[in-house]
Amino acid sequence: MRFTRMLRVGAAVTALALAAACGGGGGGNSGKSLVQRAKDTKKVSIGIKFDQPGLGQKTPDGKYEGFDIDVARYVAKELGVDEGNIEFKKAESAQRENMIEKGEVDYVVGTYSINDKRKEKVSFAGPYFITGQDLLVRADNTDITGPETLDGKKLCSVKGSTPAQKIKSDFSKQAELQEYGGYSECLAGLSSGKLDALTTDSVILAGYAAQNPNKFRLVGKVFTEEKYGIGLKKGDNEGRDAINKAIEKMIADGAWKASLEKHLGPAGYKIPDPPAITEK
Amino acid sequence: MDFLSRYDLLGAFWVTVRLTVFSAIGSLVWGTVLAGMRVSPVPVMRAFGTAYVNLVRNTPLTLIILGTSLGLYSTLGLALADETSGTFLKDNNFRLAVLGFVAYTSTFVCESLRSGINTVPVGQAEAARALGLRFSQTLWIVVLPQAFRAVIAPLASVLIALTKNTTVASAIGVAEASLLMSEMIENEADKLFLIFLAIAAGFVVLTLPTGLFLGWVAKKVAVKR
Amino acid sequence: MSAPSVLYDAPGPKARARNVVYTVAFSLVLLGAAWFVVSGLNEEGQLDAELWKPFVADSRIWTEFLLPGLGTTLEAAAAAILIALPVGAIFGIARLSDHAWVRALAGALVEFFRAIPVLVLMIFCDRFYYLFTDISPDNRTFWAVVTALVLYNGSVLAEVVRAGILSLPRGQTEASLALGLRKTQTMTLILLPQAVTAMLPAIVSQLVVVLKDTAIGGAMLTLPDLLSQYKLIANNYNNTIPTLIVIAALYIVINTILTQLAGRLERRLSRRNRPPAGVREDHIERQDVHLAETKTGEASGA
Fold first, then answer.
1. B2-221 belongs to which CATH class?
2. Contact between residue C230 and residue C250 where contact means Cβ atoms under 8 Å apart
């Protein structure tokens, strides 16, 4: 008897779990433009990175800080949403398009490069920042001056990322590659001297350099171009224009530069000129 | 199907096979040593054997593999390959992964062996002692050979689990089958099922014959009592 | 009698001296290894107090990172085992079906999912849910990990259930059929309840396996589990290695508790169900003591 009850409880749990699994999706906010939705609900949910120091980082206070976060907040403010009504959601690189398409988030500000493949699924506003692939080395390293000086060096990158492959195919064929699941593993090897360089977007590296200015140094020789945009639902032109206006205003009133200086300044990162909006 | 030929499936599975074989040999040796320690007359060895098995067996394998790369190599500077070879990272990661698998899998070998030792009749050990054999001789000449024959079936399960566990080596960038699978899925989004079936078939081919063969061996060499 | 083990005699003066030598030599080896680790960590500054202090001084490291991560790990493990149990029971029973095609189908499925690495299943499920379902990204990895664990552990538990039922005396089935119970009733009322009590320790130890396997999802997919927290913590405190050590300790503590629980459960069940001593002493978990103390020499190899 006891067993049949257990079985029933088990079945109920299974059913509940499946229901939860299937019912979890679909936060319907389709149709209306971002501008209208923000006006109606006074709320936005924004996809950000949780683990990028200087750009989008979750702090021990349970808060979020970084340049991307400041941009996200500024845009929300311009849409008429109070800071307290912003819901930040973790947007892993591989999930960004999916989150936007399914209406999980209103827009994504998370080291999100504008490219044609992504534009098939989402619309972009911006760019709000232009960066490119760079190298991070130990502060005392002098012999790595660019992507072509990596022969025989140990280069680290995260799994499934093309940057490292690009260096090997275009610049230094003798470079040795180490792939990890995340940047923190690379940094552990870099700081102990067992790996020589870490490669990805310059501004991401600057975030790490800003955390440890005595330990790491940015090589500063950018060899690709990545335009960071704000991703939103495909075809929402009204929302895109509103975000573009917010970005322009943020650049014009100095908040753009102040945020970059605050978050990336300690790295000695040379703040580039603000980009011109191209996604119109 | 021809997209499969663009990827080095055989090469990736060859890495999986090599990981498995080297780790299996290492685990068998280290696991036997551990089992010996756990039944030895020296209290320190017994304590170490017990502590080692309990600690390592309760740690996730992923953490152990990450630990070999981040801890042993990055922090403690343990290099297992020639630094000037030009393929240092590749070789070193492979060997670190093997080390991690040996550390983990040996605990299961040890526990299987210990239960195997218990299937050997007490009289065997008593007779061995009566003949004047020392502990090491009793264990090595009389008890272990019989114990091994009794635990071939459990060891086969351990070996199959090891084969599958080698996929975790992708955490430190060892280019085995599951890493190739991730790469293929990234590039060929619309061929998910084909890719899955190809990789799954590879593992079925690796594990099924092993299981059947060792099951047959287990029956063949079982001690009749 | 006075000997601590059948494998060796009570040590005489010579053996005692030899044991002392072994003890000293082995201790030195252990100390050497420990010194290599500690001095290496120290050289890299990994033992600096400021890297470790957050774990005691800053409670936020627990409330924001470690405990929520641990929560996710436990949730995923619990969901996986709770769903895997009925799935395993169904497939285990199906493999004992009277219909050959049911047996064959269940057998093929069980063997298939047992042969495939959990990581491969996870990668597949994650992508599958991404392409074909509406599960939100927050939950998708979670359910991908749980689904993969259910598929694998369900097939393992199916074998446990099958073995459990087969281990029952044949008379149970015969008596039940003689009483006029139908096949389903025999299974659910007579066989399964007895089998489950015998299987409970195996199920609890499987929980340890599940718990450890959730870490694969944390490292390879994006499940915000206990292991994956080291990235967030290291970003804020720059202490990757100490964080990994603390996380390993947490896993060990939890899994040790579960293992102990399995052992205790098993001892209790064997006391309750099998009064004649020495009937089932062939389980690994119980042999905390070595050979002679457990008098298990006569155990069969089954």
1. mainly alpha
2. no
How is residue C37 written in tokens?
A: 């680790």
Higher-confidence residue: B187 or A247? A247
ipTM associated with this complex: 0.93
For residue B150, give the amino acid letter: A
Q: Is the fold of A34-131+226-267 the same as that of A133-218?
A: yes
In this complex, do B45 and C22 lie within 8 Å of one another by their Cβ atoms?
Answer: yes
Domain A133-218, second-level architecture: 3-Layer(aba) Sandwich (3.40)
The confidence band for A211, taking pLDDT boundaries of 50, 70 and 90, is confident
Q: For the residues B127-136, what does the mean pLDDT come to?
A: 90
Q: What is the mean pLDDT of chain A?
A: 83
Task: Tell me whether residues C193 and A2 touch, CB distance under 8 A.
Answer: yes
* B222 to C241: CB separation less than 8 angstroms, yes or no: no
Nearest CA in chain A to B182: A160
Among B70, B77, B89, the residue with its CB nearest the CB of A188 is B70
Read off the amino acid at residue C2: S
Q: What is the CATH number of the domain that holds C101?
A: 1.10.3720.10
Interface of B with A (CB under 8 A): 66, 69-70, 73-75, 77, 86-90, 93, 170-173, 179, 182-183, 186
CB count in 10 Å sphere of residue C78: 15
Block residue for tokens 């590039």: B187
CA distance B11 to chain C (A): 17
Residues of chain C with pLDDT under 70: 1-4, 272-302
Chains in contact with chain A (at least 3 beta-carbon pairs closer than 8 A)? B, C
Phi, psi of A177 (to 5 degrees): -105, 135
CATH class of A34-131+226-267: alpha beta
Residue-wise pLDDT for A124-144, tens only, equals 998 999 988 999 999 998 888
Task: Select the residue of A3, A20, A99 nearest C196 (Cβ to Cβ).
Answer: A3
C53 contacts: CB under 8 Å, gap ≥ 6? none
